[in-house]
Amino acid sequence: MSHPGSTNAPVAGRVGKWQGIQDCVHCGLCLTSCPTYLSTGVEMSSPRGRLVLIRAGESRSTTLSPVMVRHLDQCLGCLACEEACPSTVPYGQILHEAREQIGQEFQRGTLDRVLRWVLLRLFPYPERLGAFLGGLHLCQRLGVVEWAARSRTLNALVPRLAGMASLLPKLAPAAERQPLPVVTPAEGLKRGRIALLTGCAQRALLPGINRATVRVLAAAGYEVVAPTDQGCCGALHLHAGDVSGARRLGQALMQSFEGAGAELIVSNAAGCGAAMKGYGQLFADDPAWQSRATMFASKVRDVSEILAGVTWNGRLQPVPLTVTYHDACHLAHGQRIRNEPRALLEAIPALRLVELPESDVCCGSGGVYNVLQPRMARLVLDRKIHHIVGTGASVVAAGNIGCLLQLRAGLVEAALPVRCLHPVELVDWSLHGQPNE
Predict the structure, then answer these.
(1) 116 and 193: one domain?
(2) CA 428, CA 343: separation in Å to the nearest integer?
(3) Which residues pair with 222 in a beta bridge?
(4) In terms of domains, do 301 and 207 share one?
(5) In angstroms, what CA-CA distances link 234 with 27, 241, 265, 289, 426?
(6) Is residue 437 part of a domain?
(7) Among residues 123, 150, 171, which one ends one of the domains?
(8) pLDDT for the residue numbered 61
(9) Counted domains in the chain
(10) CATH assignment of the domain containing 82
(11) Dist CA 156 CA 173 (whole Å)
């Protein structure tokens, strides 16, 4: 049976390669960790519900229907269910392969196709994004972007465009978006040489995070190299189901870092770090790249993993703020890193860390999920903002640019005086003082 928007390609037989899908026993332990299920209460918006859709497609030789695709698209890919699953179902890998199949067999609507095409050909390419943001910077100064974010007419006609406008931070001037120094020397006794992933979007949208990261790592005794030819890690393509595109970008990134002479590769963005740590699996069936990818992945660290072991010997100065911490999904669930960012914050004198209820439940960012699925992203974000307000914190910290942009948008819309910062920025404040703004 065919459905509008679907193809006649049968689902039957294609799920055999999705190892582990049959291990789901539908126990329901994943439900309380799934942000879309918590926000809707709809079974098909849960991990086990989505697995049922895939298995049903295999057993009944059905086609990819709009309903199936919609519920798979609405998955944030946060991996909370994978961590909660007692049967260790590899949900993340199944989701990537399902989305790859959707991209090959399902005909999306025109607007959806165009938006995805633009996003995947803009954000992962720093030069293109930089030029685009240069124009946006002018539009912000003229008030056009603020109007677009607030326009009820635009929200009604093109909600995705209005949503994109609301996510934009105040863009830094071009001078602040210049590339980092290729090499930043270590201060004092040199601990080692590390290479920093500057990110495709972060270097343009929130460049202060990278500059704070370099300052803090140098203060900790690390020589920091930032390869000038580095591009995207491929995370956005992978989440969108474009596995071949993710591999192509991953190959280029590995090549750009191989000549850096660094013992470790550091990321300050959870999604990027998780993607790079997964290169061994991404290239598992590619003999030419598998060993290189595995070696590269073994060197990847989140910045909090590096800094959590540093003894500052009284160099940290007081930062009298009440801070709450949001666990970025691909840091907590994807990389199993929870304690290190909190240890960084707790080491700062006078900083009061308040635990956030449901801190490891997704905020609704999900890479470009909040652009592609604005309504569901809003439901998830509203729940997160409610919990942040309850902490009474003046700052919410998170180790991922997507989370920071999403949380900022929700807090600004709610007119709440809460700042969104990366933990490394707060450490930088403690070492070097709060920048003038």
Answers:
(1) no
(2) 15
(3) 192
(4) yes
(5) 33, 11, 16, 15, 28
(6) no
(7) 171
(8) 54
(9) 4
(10) 1.10.1060.10
(11) 31
Query: Do residues 195 and 225 touch, judged by C-beta distance below 8 A?
Result: yes
313: in domain: no
Q: Please give the distance of CA 227 from its chain centroid, rounded to a whole number.
A: 21
Please give the residue range of the domain that contains residue 231: 175-307
| Residue 5 forms part of a structural domain | no
Chain-centroid distance, C-alpha 409? 16
Report the Cα 238 to chain-centroid distance in Å: 12
> What does the pLDDT read at residue 394?
97
Q: Residue 59 has what pLDDT?
A: 57
What CATH number does residue 400 fall under?
Answer: 3.40.50
Instruction: Note the pLDDT of residue 14.
Output: 43
Residues of the chain under the 70 pLDDT cut: 1-19, 57-62, 136-137, 140, 144-166, 436-437
Per-residue pLDDT, 427: 98
Token look-up 């326009």 returns 151
| HEC string for the chain | CCCCCCCCCECCCHHHHCCCHHHCCCCCCCHHHCHHHHHHCCHHHCHHHHHHHHHHHHHHCCECCHHHHHHHHCCCCCCHHHHHCCCCCCHHHHHHHHHHHHHHHCCCCHHHHHHHHHHHHHCCCHHHHHHHHHHHHHHHHHCHHHHHHHCHHHHHHCHHHHHHHHHCCCCCCHHHHCCCCCEECCCCCCCEEEEECCCCCHHHHCHHHHHHHHHHHHHCCEEEECCCCCCCCCHHHHHCCCHHHHHHHHHHHHHHHHCCCCCEEEECCHHHHHHHHCHHHHCCCCCCCHHHHHHHHHCEEEHHHHHCCCCCCCCCCCCCCEEEECCCHHHHCCCCCCHHHHHHHHCCCCCEEECCCCCCCCCCCCCCHHHHCHHHHHHHHHHHHHHHHHHCCCEEECCCHHHHHHHHHHHHHCCCCCEEECHHHHHHHHHHCCCCC
Q: Which two tokens stand for residue 7?
A: 């193809």
